[in-house]
């Protein structure tokens, strides 16, 4: 019987199968629940619908997801509905051509996509005028009947293309929109073309985001393969990481000199990847400090990270059989203000004069404030962060810096679980895949196609 | 070995010298020459070219007090230039915190140049979402801004009879520490091919260089250095025209002094910046000289 | 400033408070001293007090008090219960109960971060290595293009050479830096060379980004000195 | 109970928020903001834990009259007074709370930030030494970029700022992009490990 992916670990580990089934079950329940009662959730808990548009403040303008080579649809949303000026007396025959209006794909249901392909055109034609009208339902409760206010949207095109596309936004989901086109010659308007009707509705799946889903599926595939390999005991080679010796001798130095160790697990929250990596390095460091009865100081900026760090240190002291050495005040919370925390850590560095300082986790501009004060006291300093623009400041002020991925690799190495090494191998495999994609990108761009470029386009 | 001393100068001496290299240029009002780069000069020339065309300058003031030290001097310098040349100025902001900045900048510069609100300049205040504003200005300013910042209905303002949309705006300048200038380039620039210039913080200047290359941006002022260059260009122009002396002569001594320091703000910061940069580089070179000599000394000795 | 402009020093109490705090922090540069200790501990106390007042005013009142208690908005009950589970922290035997709110937060941020990281860190960075794009994300020009080499051949010069070589050198840099962080193989042979080239790019990059931020940090110091000399001592 | 349910919660929330990204429907967007509110509400309870740790730590220092316990009093007193001013007198513009923030907390913050100007100098002096070929590269590119940022730089060598621009857009961009790609992979791997229940260190200690 081949071992299933997440079979029961002999060491009584936790099996994930019930977990996967419960996830799918809840998922099946959750989505319809939300679909049936959008009105219910709309009004009560959620902030006003306009939050939808405000949700994307100064993000780059949402180019219409139009992969065809045609003229990109002009995404245009008029700000205030206004009463339509009555068009002057029509003289021209109505324009002939294909006018199509349908619900815009991949959106929350407030937009329709209109395409106009004129066929015959009178010679003195100067342009076309699009007119869309939607009867907004009476707002407010059913009893005080408010007249439905017509929302009219108008736009004019110069007559220079054989096809026009436009996305009209700020519509009410589920209410029909009448769209018609008029030919324009100077100031004379033609009869409006036959009206097309479109109903904007929320879509359930964003087709533009498929590449993101595929990329993650590939990643999950590699992850499961390597985790399974490491679970079944296959020897996975991972080269020695230079930073690890530096961590070992730094702790060793403090224990010899009988001075304390300062361990700052970064300034970010528990859900930050660098904090998690830092906490899994804190465990072995705490174990070593316990074995040599060296004082360990762990200041925190996030209350949750403080609770988890305290658990990690207490458990490490128990594992080494020295629960008596564990001092409850060695792991503490200072403040959540970035520079208040840096000022307090500076105070600790200068007053406690620890022999070794660890700065592992996520840091911002205050990184050099702490690291340079530590350098001035002559302590050995090991830093590690995935904050790319703080790495230079750690490099100039610390003895060793774990750069970006090296922090994750070190935590996988020092971590207790053997399968963590498996995930490191998965990362390397996907890295080679990305290098392949880049090479493929160069080749396709040389040939002049932007296909790969469009696949990797960030979806709106 | 005396050279050994070069190797480890005491930290406190380094800090003291750094402190002095900031204080002395400020107190001694050191005036270092400001070298003007082409990307700032092109904005200056773009505004000069608008003189007499009746077209307006649109300034989008999208920064808050935290980035004001870098951006406020440059927006005031541009406003002074437009007011000197009687070019109408339209002030708008896409960030709520930008309102205070806009009111202060337009107020001080208008008082100095005797520019009258609603005639020489209009502050239209805050409007959102940013994208609709940028696109809306292509159709009709008055639809996007039904009333000015101080609640004056825009359809009653004679200036806005003439200035209706991008066609009547000669240059749009987006001054911000955020990515808003990029959105201006993508909307006003590419869609309505409106000339767009940017005034940004030093940190985000690097991201906008590509737009200069593809001249989607008319020009760019980067950080305090950009502001100092524009102040320098304006001072040179006013010296040539002699307008500065006339104006200051007509004011009380105290006002004249206050406006003079305000016009010098960016350069006042640039002087200690240059000296402090040189101090750091001097220490680095000192350290290396000490290191190389003792190293070589040890190898040969 | 309330006081008359001619006074040689500010008489505004608040300006004095700010000036003393500024000097207290600067005194740490000389050495640790009671004034700095006082300012440091004051900073910690005031910032935590600030956090309490702000979270009371912006989260507790609107969301919990008015939302749950006054408007009977039961959808706000689960987070309050989960939040209250944190109190288990105070009872050593039951601290494991705090794992429930923690795992809720972990699940939420991991779920949200996954697709976003794929787009911002993987898609955009990968795409940027072989294709230039403008702010709206529309394609501009391939980074490595034969045209640039032809242009270089047409009129050779430092600038046109750099323009032509920009693409290949950028690609080389990204590839080598990624191989520098490759863990599944001993750094020997070709991988060692790639690692060395990667290190060249890394060191130049770190030196440059260090040098680039110097101006921003100096302007902070200049701002403080302008405050001390200008508003406080009225020397400027 | 101790581990199965927390891991299940993480997995369920992870999958739901992951799926939410792919659903553009309005109710999915409302669901996202709704969950965001939940996390904010849970977050403020965490402040209680931080507060208790801070008060216990400084309280013990005062009780045991540890040297320097006077400063612990400063922490407790300033904490209580700032919180009370904020809670009772309100946090709106122009209130005493805002004055305390603007003239007490903000100067402390910006001066700590300004210390960086000094620390950058001493760090550059000590670290920018031509010890090895890597350090020499660091030194050269650092100095060129610093010079390229001030007008005097261009006076020393005419295209100093041009070189700075090339250094920023070529090697620096390549290096930062290479690291970010690696970091991105690390983040995805760790987030997946959390959702799939492989990574458990956040539960603290032995699971």
Describe, in plain words, how this protein is organized in 3D.
The complex is a heterotetramer of chains A (460), B (301), C (236) and D (207). Chain B folds into two domains: 2-30 and 269-300; 38-263, Rossmann fold (3-Layer(aba) Sandwich). Chain B contains 14 helices and six strands. In chain B, α9 (180-192) links the parallel β4 and β5. Chain B is α/β, with parallel strands linked by helices and 301 residues long. Chain C has seven helices and two strands. The relative contact order of chain C is 0.07. Chain D is mainly alpha-helical. Chain D has a domain at 1-78. Chain D contains seven helices and no strands. In chain D, α2 runs antiparallel to α3 (69-89) and α5 (133-148) packs across α7 (160-196).
Question: What is the topological layout?
Answer:
The complex is a heterotetramer of chains A (460), B (301), C (236) and D (207).
Chain A: H1 17-36, H2 38-43, H3 51-54, E1 74-76, E2 97-103, E3 112-118, E4 127-135, E5 150-158, E6 164-168, E7 177-185, E8 188-189, E9 196-198, H4 210-231, H5 242-257, E10 261-264, H6 273-291, E11 296-300, H7 303-319, E12 331-333, H8 338-352, E13 356-360, H9 367-376, E14 380-385, H10 391-397, E15 400-403, H11 405-414, H12 419-447, H13 451-455
Parallel strand pairs in A: 1-6, 10-11, 10-13, 11-12, 13-14, 14-15
Antiparallel strand pairs in A: 2-3, 3-6, 4-5, 4-7, 7-8, 7-9
Helix pairs in contact in A: 4-12, 6-7, 6-11, 8-9, 11-12
Chain B: H1 2-7, H2 11-27, H3 38-50, E1 56-62, H4 68-84, E2 89-93, H5 98-113, E3 121-126, H6 130-139, H7 141-144, H8 158-162, E4 169-176, H9 180-192, E5 196-200, H10 202-213, E6 220-222, H11 223-241, H12 243-249, H13 253-263, H14 265-300
Parallel strand pairs in B: 1-2, 1-4, 2-3, 4-5, 5-6
Helix pairs in contact in B: 2-14, 4-5, 4-11, 6-9, 11-14
Chain C: H1 13-30, H2 34-70, H3 77-84, H4 99-130, E1 131-133, E2 139-142, H5 146-154, H6 158-180, H7 190-232
Antiparallel strand pairs in C: 1-2
